[in-house]
């Protein structure tokens, strides 16, 4: 068992059931994550999705970390980042059978995305039917201008490090 918490700083913390901090992560994707507002996992807790106040969705692969969290080589990998909404993401849901992610925003929209590529399928209430088989059409919602970014493994992710800068008064200076 594992607990995951998302924070205003953009940090993701993984906790053991005993309350011990196991890992701290910050999204690397080159885009500002801002405060995290939503998170969900797949049924086997191998994939973690987080949503941010800026409308971004981040996809993390936790499979190797969960197999052996003590092994340093088994890291949590950030795989994908995309702008899902122009406003805050308030909820996420992953439907594994269809490989689809549903996102909801404070703007009142609910949108469907391909879970592994971040391709946009459409929004609830649109006139046309969802075509979940065609992921080759690169379309975007009208209020979002950037395509998904696949995170390469060779890029080193930034992890939150504990740095102490003590404030001391030096009267001689």
UniProtKB/TrEMBL annotation:
One Pfam family of this protein, by short name? Answer: Beta-prop_IP5PC_F
Keyword Transmembrane in the entry? The reply is: no
InterPro entries registered for this protein in UniProt: Beta-prop_IP5PC_F (IPR056454), WD-EF-hand_domain (IPR051242), WD40/YVTN_repeat-like_dom_sf (IPR015943), WD40_repeat_dom_sf (IPR036322), WD40_rpt (IPR001680)
Species, as recorded: Loxia curvirostra (Red crossbill)
Recorded superkingdom: Eukaryota
Q: Which residues form the IP5PC-F beta-propeller domain?
A: 34-114
UniProt key word Repeat: yes
**Which SMART domains does this chain map to?**
WD40
Q: Which UniProt keywords apply?
A: Repeat, WD repeat
Q: What is this protein called?
A: WDR64 protein
Q: Where are WD repeat segments found?
A: 82-118
